[in-house]
Automatic annotation (TrEMBL):
InterPro entries hit by this protein: Homeodomain-like_sf, HTH-type_TetR-like_transc_reg, HTH_TetR, Tet_transcr_reg_TetR-rel_C_sf, TetR_C_16
Protein name, as recorded: TetR/AcrR family transcriptional regulator
Ribosomal protein is among the record's keywords: no
Pfam family membership, one: TetR_N
Length: 207
């Protein structure tokens, strides 16, 4: 009499955290993008991102150098603000406006222009992308260009916002909407016309 063979049990899928795959990296970025949009940079921890993505916190360090890089990649910036504004925060506040305008024009006149235009257009109508852009502008851009500017915290913040209105307006009008004659004006003319306003917002009398 033969002994019946043991029935093979169907494989049970393991539950829990994901392994270190390319898909895991995508899940981390997706979770980070959502959490940064909801809670901002300071209000989001790597543990929260890992928990939302279903991965071990160590997996984030496997794919990313840290929270700053994760934020930059989740926002999908076409350029690195640190590289674009290199040298600006080390300059004297009273002589900084021209450097800022030149840095912005240099970036937008580069081959990265199509990606930058697409990025700005992509933020319009999207609350999540707008929140990420606001966080990026505050952390990576305004904080750098306002470094060392004298005044109370509230005054410096207001000055930074005013500088942003000039630079974002310049980018939109010259490169996205392309209003003439500003769209085709020589960069040197743009610097000459815009920098004085930026300098007033940085260090001038606001009364």
């Amino acid at each position: 009499m033969s002994v019946p063979a043991e029935k093979k049990q169907p494989a049970v899928a393991r539950r829990g955290r994901r392994g270190g795959t390319t898909a895991s990296r995508g899940h981390i970025l997706e979770a980070a993008r959502r959490l940064f949009a909801e809670h901002g940079f300071e209000g989001t921890s790597l543990r929260q991102v890992a928990r939302s993505a279903g991965v071990d916190p160590a997996m984030i360090h496997h794919f990313f150098k840290g929270k700053d890089e994760l934020f930059a990649l989740s926002v999908e910036l076409p350029a690195n603000p640190e590289e674009v504004l290199a040298g600006v925060e080390d300059s004297r506040p009273g002589e900084r406006a021209e450097l800022i305008v030149r840095a912005v024009l240099r970036l937008w006149e580069s081959p990265a222009q199509p990606s930058l235009v697409a990025f700005l257009r992509g933020t319009v109508g999207s609350k999540a992308k707008t929140a990420l852009l606001r966080e990026t502008v505050t952390r990576a851009i305004i904080n750098r260009i306002m470094a060392g500017v004298p005044g109370t915290k509230e005054e410096v913040a207001l000055r930074g916002d005013l500088v942003a209105t000039q630079m974002v307006g310049l980018m939109m009008v010259r490169y996205v909407v392309r209003l003439e004659p500003l769209a085709s004006a020589p960069p040197e003319d743009v610097v000459r016309l815009v920098a004085p306003n930026v300098q007033r917002y940085l260090t001038g009398d606001l009364s």
